[in-house]
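Hey,
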Amino acid sequence: MCDNQEQNTEVEMPAEVEIIGVKFKPTGKVYYFAANKHRANAADSVIVETARGLEIGAVATPNKMVKSSEIVPPLRPVVRIASAADLKHAEENKAKEAEAFDICKKKIADHKLDMNLVEAEYTFDNSKLLFYFTSDGRVDFRDLVKDLASVFRTRIELRQIGIRDEAKLLGGLGVCGRPFCCSSFLSDFVQVSIKMAKEQNFSLNSAKISGACGRLMCCLRYEHETYEEAIKRTPPLGSTVKTENGNGVVIETNPLAGLIKVRLEEKTESPKAFAVDDVTLLYLKNQKPVNTENSGEASSSKK
């Protein structure tokens, strides 16, 4: 009898689930929710159930069927398509957030805490008020939380964020004169390394390759794969190559343009530029030359 009861309570998941993708910030990640029989178009506003309460977001991905195996549980539901009243309430929350920000900033000063307030945010149902801040170290804000809870009469949450997150939230203009990539279209931060700057022949002066956040500019990543492929096809500096004018040493490279500058052996004339496809790599810097008589095929291959 017990076995039958257990068998009857099992719920078989459908092969496919209808989902809707939602963004809570213009440049935020897309989160997926069960459509729950609601139909939504791109840019529609919807009310959804999240781990921190009801939230309002913009539809980034309209109704779509996906395999159940691709879903990461729990898949929370879309509660409703946002009404005019919901949109009005969201605007009222924005006004409350500005007021809460000013109050919290004053309280931080009163408690003499070493923290920089970045943003205040209400959940749609006002069940929680979140404050985002930056700080050089750990901050004991327990007394501040109690003080804020007594003022706003709701759950208070303080979140310490990094300086890249701060730049994303506040926005601004980069050295290129355009809005920050992170605050205009990047949904997530990408890993950027100093190697990328080296491969793109940028000055390694940190002031020239760092963004307003003080970290390496995100845009160093955009052309990284293209540079990597171009560098693989380009003889490196110091290598010896065979050209139509004789053998010479590579003294300058321009991977994206597919050009190298070569100082020819036994020639007094100035170095010449050659297309990468028109030269043959003979040997790398500090390596013995390839025996072109016995392995002519290997020496004629482009590297």
